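Exercise 3.2. Students should predict the tertiary structure of the chain below and write it as structure tokens, then compare their answer with the key that follows.

Predict this chain's 3D structure.
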Amino acid sequence: MAVWVLFSSLLLVVMAAAAPFVNGGGGGLTVGFYRESCPDAEAIVRKVVADAVRDDPTTNAPLLRLHFHDCFVRGCDGSVLINSTETNTAEKDVKPNHTLDAFDVIDAIKEKLERKCPGVVSCSDILAIAARDAVSLASKAVTKGRWSKDGNLYEVETGRRDGRVSSAKEAVTNLPDSFDGIRKLTTRFASKGLDLKDLAVLSGAHALGNTHCPSMAKRLRNFTAHHNTDPTLDATYAAKLRRQCRSAGDNTTELEMVPGSSTTFDAAYYRLVTERKGMFHSDEALLRNAVTRGLVYEYMRSEESFLRDFGVSMVNMGKVGVLTGRQGEIRRTCALVN
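Answer key:
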């Protein structure tokens, strides 16, 4: 079920000039926002996510990725879930988002919440909670009880409302490229109010999921006029990937972001980066800045530091461009504006 051409997700973004949602600061968000209005909201989300991950362990990656792609286009407003219409092409239907998945899980959650608490829980909050649950269920530190009593890697602030606009053009403008270098990444994250530490730790989302050969094609063949293969990619690893990807257009072969543990959320990704085995050029870019390079080595040595900081940065990202109060709406169906 999942292609994780993330970052593509977290390499994210310069907001479209027309979009007025650069960084809403997260005002109005709070942990336990639905404590009175829908007390079982987070439990309902967890149950559906847990069932989905049990049936297909690769589900955790696309749920995490949906939240990323939502927050970096118009802010965390659920716009990535909206369907296209005859007069508008929505975010989900542009090429960078063609590999998004797990919409059915979000729909199942929304259906149950609408039966329990009609018109209360926003689709944007569902994305945020589901992402937290997906990564918590994929973390052995959490599932084995070494992290928290409630089974969560971090607490999610809620209270977001849903946007009414989803623009393919804005998605094309704002979603990142896996070939971004460190300068572009730094600028893009800064435009969201996110710093170098957020960049380094959120890149760790690449611990989960798979990608397909087209996302690696340029690094493996005809990289430049002088280099057939990206020289920043370990030569032995590149040769292995070329054997797996016989064709640049191979959309069938899946490549694990972290070979052997693509459904486990831990710090193994950072070891790969130090060994020049990160899947994307943007992974290698983390070694091109003193701050991000230092964090890569810190997280490689200490999974506890990574997991702690990941929760903090996810909360930071979850505040980007949020709608609260009387802004936006609470969609009855996540794919459709009311």
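Discussion points: Confidence is low (pLDDT under 50) at residues 2-23. Residues 1 and 58 are 6 Å apart (CA to CA).
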